Input
Amino acid sequence: MFDPVPNVQADCHTLSESNVLTPPVKEALLRNGQTIFYIKKSTDNPKWFAIRATQKRGQKVADSLQALQDDSLDIYFPMLKHVMYSNEDFDNPTKKIVDVPVDPNLLFVRTTTDRMLYYLYDDLRPQIKGFTPYYNHCIVNSFGRNDLLVVPDVQLQSFRIIVESGNENIILNESISPDYLNGDRVVVTGGPFAGVHGVVVKYKHQKRVIVQLDGIGVYGTSYVPKDWLRKV
Output
């Protein structure tokens, strides 16, 4: 039931202790003479869980979760603003801005561990096709399986700023040399990427700030002037 789903391998050295998730623990109780198993409740705070929607069902999974009207769920399906031009009039093409998924398989859910385990494993949970979690391949729990992947708040917020900047020159999960990830850790203090926390790199002859979502991918800003960078 708890077998890992293959996904991008994380750099285990970048994962923080906040990513460690207590494994689902089932306890037994007697009800009407029968043994009933349930998932032991925890008292943790909400956190961002990464979801790998199978077969490009990201939008459908997000819509299904929204339809549950569960106030304990915060759903984020990252979208880009993409400019398109119609070919109906060659001399005067019509400009149109449309929303395009960053990745049709990727979304994030902020909730408590209890609620996430309920929607993933409880026998009475709503059935949502494609609702599959990413796993933390750097952590093996006491069951010999990987924990659910948790994205730290600062990483998710930086990722959102980049995606929602409207800039077409951002880096979207491109292959970045590991050498580039050895730069200074900075926060962007000005411009459309203000608030992004990441690593400053030189990419395509420009100074950029890279955000690594552990186990998912690498994303980055467009050019950021030196005066807008502060070491942290």
Remarks:
- The helical segments are 58-67, 113-121, 153-163.
- Residues 1-10, 13-40 have pLDDT under 50 and may be disordered.
- Residues 153-163 form the longest helix (11 residues).
